[in-house]
């Protein structure tokens, strides 16, 4: 069976995200926005502001990350 070092895989994916993601983000930021894009950006901004007003947002975020971590630990124990 294939054994994976999860910590190294996590860091490798993170590095790929940085190496590939930053140039892509910069390329899209520098491009000129179209009129339809401006409307979408306003909707996204409203959605983001609404999400930030969610009650107990920090608790929900921490709970979901803890559950994801615990499920990975349980899966690794049974492997």
Describe the 3D structure.
This protein is an all-alpha fold and 79 residues long. The chain has 2 domains: 1-31, no CATH class; 33-78. The protein is built from 3 helices and no strands. It has helices at 6-30, 35-52, 57-78.
Taking all Cα atoms into account, the compactness measure Rg is 19 Å
- Structural class of the helix and strand makeup? mainly alpha
Q: What's the number of structural domains?
A: 2
Distance between the termini: 9 Å
* Uncertain segments: none
Tell me which oligomeric state these chains represent. single chain
Average pLDDT: 78
Task: Describe the structure using short key phrases.
79 residues, mainly alpha, 3 helices
């Amino acid at each position: 069976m294939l054994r994976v070092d999860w910590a190294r895989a996590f860091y490798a994916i993170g590095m790929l995200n940085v190496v590939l993601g930053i140039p892509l983000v910069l390329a899209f930021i520098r491009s000129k926005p179209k009129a339809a894009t401006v409307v979408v950006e306003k909707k996204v901004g409203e959605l983001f502001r609404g999400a930030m007003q969610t009650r107990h947002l920090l608790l929900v975020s921490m709970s979901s990350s803890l559950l994801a971590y615990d499920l990975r630990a349980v899966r690794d124990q049974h492997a």
